[in-house]
Amino acid sequence: MAFVASCANISTHKIQRERRAICGTHRYLRDASTLIPLKVVSNEYVSRKSYGVRMAAPASSKREVPLNIFRPNKPFEATVLSNELIVGEDAPGETWHMIFNTDGALRYIEGQSIGVIPPGLDEKGKPHKVRLYSIASTSHGDHQDDKTLSLCVKRLVYTDPSTGEERRGVCSNYLCDLKANDKVSISGPVGTVMLMPEDQKANIIMLATGTGIAPFRAFLLKAFMENNPDYHFQGNMWLFFGVPTTSSLLYYDELEKMVKENPNQLRIDYAISREQKDANGKKMYIQNRMAEYKEELYEMFHQPNTYVYMCGLKGMESGLDEVMGPVFEERGEDWQEFRKQMKKDKHLLIETY
């Protein structure tokens, strides 16, 4: 099955271009002193109840996951290498891509997060609490030297409903205002939920809104832009990416380059809510775009090597139910039970807010 890009009604001249060189050599993680092996739940096949579908058995994991190398009370001081606005001028809100130098001290793998401790005190006079952000780079970093990590951060600005005053998110504004050579206190890495499957022939479906693209950028770069000696992706990836406007499409050039160079393995469908409408004239959200492929998705969901990832706005969870529920019901199947089993089997992995 050939995978092709779908980019309906996108005006390319409006899209903010971002080009990065992806090159260089790659090395294995060497120091395993603080690496934690993934727990293997079972080495037996697990059935999805009532459907006769057999899940791929999790092979004995050789992957080691670094966790909490640096803790919030003893953070690492990273140095900002760059901080770049990656949306157009007419985008609803600013989103920045920032690269931190870690000197290789804070190791991580794709799908993990780091904590950021903003400077200063909160309204109670206490140090600010740590905020978690998904890492947007592969374990080798954007500079491919194993010494950097990247974040994708949207500046939070909102109106207080009780006072009408403008409010600004403490940490997001701190991060978006960073300049080269600034220092940032970071902790981590944390997280084992959103890690890439070790099956290099897996079907990976990714559902993202806005900055929820961060971990999936790491997935895609690892699969299609790096030449890792120990990882050669042979499966298929399908990204559904929801944004409000064309000018909000993050990493568009990178995504389209990967699709063009890997048409048989990578497919991307955009849902641009303020510019596109579905067949019924409704705004094009992720669930509306997915509905166009509901039969194909139904078949893929039943394949034992399919993993579904979701990162971004919490509303995507009900959107997934809205799309898949009727398809399963038409076939006499219970979507909620199937969904529950997928989560239990770690084939439906969700990180929403």
UniProtKB/TrEMBL annotation:
<dbReference type="InterPro" id="IPR001433">
    <property type="entry name" value="OxRdtase_FAD/NAD-bd"/>
</dbReference>
<keyword id="KW-0274">FAD</keyword>
<dbReference type="GO" id="GO:0004324">
    <property type="term" value="F:ferredoxin-NADP+ reductase activity"/>
</dbReference>
<feature type="binding site">
    <location>
        <begin position="243"/>
        <end position="244"/>
    </location>
    <ligand>
        <name>NADP(+)</name>
    </ligand>
</feature>
<dbReference type="Pfam" id="PF00970">
    <property type="entry name" value="FAD_binding_6"/>
</dbReference>
<dbReference type="InterPro" id="IPR017927">
    <property type="entry name" value="FAD-bd_FR_type"/>
</dbReference>
<dbReference type="InterPro" id="IPR015701">
    <property type="entry name" value="FNR"/>
</dbReference>
<dbReference type="InterPro" id="IPR008333">
    <property type="entry name" value="Cbr1-like_FAD-bd_dom"/>
</dbReference>
<dbReference type="InterPro" id="IPR017938">
    <property type="entry name" value="Riboflavin_synthase-like_b-brl"/>
</dbReference>
<feature type="domain" description="FAD-binding FR-type">
    <location>
        <begin position="73"/>
        <end position="196"/>
    </location>
</feature>
<feature type="binding site">
    <location>
        <position position="211"/>
    </location>
    <ligand>
        <name>NADP(+)</name>
    </ligand>
</feature>
<feature type="binding site">
    <location>
        <begin position="312"/>
        <end position="313"/>
    </location>
    <ligand>
        <name>NADP(+)</name>
    </ligand>
</feature>
<dbReference type="InterPro" id="IPR039261">
    <property type="entry name" value="FNR_nucleotide-bd"/>
</dbReference>
<protein>
    <recommendedName>
        <fullName>ferredoxin--NADP(+) reductase</fullName>
        <ecNumber>1.18.1.2</ecNumber>
    </recommendedName>
</protein>
<keyword id="KW-0285">Flavoprotein</keyword>
<feature type="binding site">
    <location>
        <position position="154"/>
    </location>
    <ligand>
        <name>NADP(+)</name>
    </ligand>
</feature>
<dbReference type="InterPro" id="IPR035442">
    <property type="entry name" value="FNR_plant_Cyanobacteria"/>
</dbReference>
<dbReference type="Pfam" id="PF00175">
    <property type="entry name" value="NAD_binding_1"/>
</dbReference>
<comment type="similarity">
    <text>Belongs to the ferredoxin--NADP reductase type 1 family.</text>
</comment>
<feature type="binding site">
    <location>
        <position position="283"/>
    </location>
    <ligand>
        <name>NADP(+)</name>
    </ligand>
</feature>
<feature type="binding site">
    <location>
        <position position="351"/>
    </location>
    <ligand>
        <name>NADP(+)</name>
    </ligand>
</feature>
<feature type="binding site">
    <location>
        <begin position="273"/>
        <end position="274"/>
    </location>
    <ligand>
        <name>NADP(+)</name>
    </ligand>
</feature>
<keyword id="KW-0560">Oxidoreductase</keyword>
<dbReference type="InterPro" id="IPR001709">
    <property type="entry name" value="Flavoprot_Pyr_Nucl_cyt_Rdtase"/>
</dbReference>
<feature type="binding site">
    <location>
        <position position="134"/>
    </location>
    <ligand>
        <name>NADP(+)</name>
    </ligand>
</feature>
<keyword id="KW-0521">NADP</keyword>
